[in-house]
Amino acid sequence: MSLREHILPDLLEACIRKARDLGDWVAVLQGADRWLEPPDELVARSGRQDLRQALVAADWIFSTFQRRYHAQLFDAWADDLAHEPDLPEIVSVAVACERWEFMFNEAYLAFMEVVRKELQRWRAGEPVPHELNDAVVVGRQMVQAGALCAASAGLLITDILCEAPNAELFMSFLEQALERRLQPADHDRLVAAGAALGIDPDDIYRLLGNALEQLRKMIEANSRDAKRIGSLVLIAKHMPDSMAEELAKIAAGFANLEALAALMALNMQATCGAVENDELLLDAIGIKGIGGGANLLVQWHEAKPFLRGGLRERIKAQIKNELLQLAVAAAAKGGGSLESGLVPRNDLRRFHASDDLDLLNIEETVDALISSGKQLCEMQEDDLFVHDTARGQAAFGVLLDISGSMSGEDLANCSIAVLVLVLRVRSEEVAIALFESNTHVMKTFEDPQSLDHVADQVLELQAQGGTCVDAALIWAADQFDSAAAPLSVLFLLSDFCFFERNEELDPHLERLAALKVQWLAASVR
After folding, report:
1. Among 78, 338, 399, 406, which has the minimal tally of Cβ within 10 Å of its Cβ?
2. CATH number, domain at 434?
3. Residue-level pLDDT at 7
């Protein structure tokens, strides 16, 4: 028997005794490499202490061993509540069980009652009630929470619009909801409510209404009006698989590139699956003004696992070009320059005969003359001062969450953000890593990767696994320690539902603080 085989049972027993929650139990299961039933009290304690973190552990257990603890965790959390959860809170812990559904319905009704009262009090000319802005935020949370409450997002938007007291507020809220990709669930009911406020149904249909049906009619009629098709894509945002497949075959039969461009921007996976002619699809992606840019990038991240080999690589090449254009445009809006960097440094020195007089610093030169007691007529060449604009050294560490909870839209935003940063700083000033259950290094400070190579990597981002950030923080601290730059900034993009407990992450954060690393965090929720 090897030493490992000899001590493993004792180590495993010690880990089981020390396990405090379901996250610890996952570590036990990973070490044991077999199923061990967690104690009921450990499961209940996990739900009471941090339900969201416990649900992440439960997801891993289910995906690995097909054992489900979600309802048990939720019951423990609900039993321990000292208040009725509001709608955002209950959405954030969506669990497929009857008790969650009951509490969700209660929270939904309570939320609508608050909105209804505020709308009744609202008067023309006053600011839009903040409850409407809250409703849009909650609607997006519902969509991102998944199938359990995504359908209710459309119902929420419909219910609120039907309570609108006048046309101004109705149209304002409808536009705001559509901008955030929230489609009302019941168009007929919505149009009836708008008509009661004196709104022309065509104005409502123009915004949401049947943007998909209008697009269908244009494709069936072989219309190639790129401007109109492009506007409908922006309104519709997404198309069901069956509809995309049906219309893709019609558009391919007409060789209608404008229609195919729209369909790929709305549902790339279904469109590419329905059309066998790769050249038509590639030509369609090249059409500008119809669903390109960020929306096409979102579709790429959602569809890439399902695209056939040769087509996938050729689509990727075209989308990489789109991504680079987006990044360059975004970087051009930032401060600094590629020459001076994000943190330019101005140094003074004495004038040399080879210097351009445009670099002369008048104020410093005059101050130097005054302090020396010289008159202007006594000024010599070495009394002149010029300024050099030097590039300030900086270190930017980037940690991107690519766990299974990240959507195609989240990955698209990550892609653009990474490339903007790479464009704005020198290669040796940026280090990038991705994290889920594992940490994947994309680029270190010493690695002189080209912009094209980084773009190629971010296009391959794939949401997967859990949200384990400890190893990524250790890697980032090691990178900053080796860089020793005057300015160090860690950019962290995540939903911040980390697998680890706060006390486990504190030592890594303290080390980063000791290295004087500044934080820039962005949440995708």
Report:
1. 338
2. 3.40.50.410
3. 43
